[in-house]
Amino acid sequence: MEMNEQAIQNINKSDFEFTDEKDNKIDLSKVAEEPKGTEYDFRLNNHIVQDNMTENQMEETVNHLFAA
To answer: What is the per-residue pLDDT for 52?
Structure first.
């Protein structure tokens, strides 16, 4: 699955973000460069909404919640 470019722009304008296992913010346009097996946290204003997400779960979340 691939993230919708418009959805990436929309999430970047929001207070939501994804972080990696070390709490570093993820550049969603470069997710393919992240090591395989990385788990992600979905955050709102630095509060975890969902943790331990796979790359596929993250892509589905972005595409479903933030696509125009």
So the answer is: 98
Beta-carbon count within 10 A of 45 CB? 8
Answer for the pair 17, 43: CB distance below 8 angstroms, yes or no. yes
Residue for token digits 């125009």? 68
Number of domains in the chain: 1
Domain containing 24: what range? 5-66
Q: What is the pTM of this model?
A: 0.89
Determine which helix (DSSP H) or strand (DSSP E) holds 5, and give its type and residue range.
Answer: helix 5-13
Buried b (16+ CB within 10 A) or exposed e, 6-36: ebbebbeeeebbbbeeeeeebebeebeeeee
